[in-house]
Amino acid sequence: MKRNKMKVLGITGGVGSGKTTLLSHFEKRYGARTIQADAVGRILMAMTGECYSEIKELFGLDILQEDLEIDRVKLGKIIFENEDMLKRINQIIHPAVKKHIIWQIEEERKKGMVPFVVIEAALLIEDNYQVICDDLWYIYASETQRHRRLKMSRDYTEEKIDSIFVNQLTEEEYKKNTSWVIDNSDDNQINTYKQIEKGLKEHGFL
Known about the structure:
There is one protein chain. By secondary structure, the chain is α/β, with parallel strands linked by helices. The protein folds into two domains: 1-32 and 116-206, P-loop containing nucleotide triphosphate hydrolases (Rossmann fold, 3-Layer(aba) Sandwich), CATH 3.40.50.300; 45-113. The chain contains nine helices and five strands, in the order E-H-E-H-H-H-H-E-E-H-H-H-E-H. It has helices at 19-30, 37-45, 52-59, 72-81, 83-111, 143-153, 158-165, 171-176, 190-202; strands spanning 7-12, 33-36, 116-120, 135-140, 180-183. A five-stranded parallel β-sheet has the order 2-3-1-4-5, with helices on both faces. Helix 2 (37-45) crosses helix 5 and helix 4 (72-81) packs across helix 5 (83-111). 27% of the residues are buried.
């Protein structure tokens, strides 16, 4: 495998569409390297991470736990209720996350051990990840199905789910900015896996 031939796939979609579950399939079935933007963000927000000091300075000591790590529940409540603070923390975290992901991709290119890399990020389109991805795919699931999944897996209230949905892109916006749509509404994922296989072949990943 030539290192400059390794392609990068970005997947996105509304919360509850099943993106994280599909990442595991990319790893197990195709040997892809998968990267979750949220997971990278958690690393960067940890006490040893490069965003820690700036976040602590912005929000104050009240957001720290006894072990001095950032209390993500407290932080989440603050930014959920304050749009300005949400914007300011995004300005800290998102550029650092993208920089770290680019570094990870380059490391994989140097090693030349994986067929392709898959990046999962809720804000893949908004944060302009098309500059580092060869393709962007939309993982779709019906709103009813996403509601059900979030209530079962995360115990979210209807109010919280609705507040999250209203701040995400519409189905039309997702489709307009991506080149392939995976319908992951069905809990029986055999059909989903077939769509992934077809997409990878048609878009030059296999």
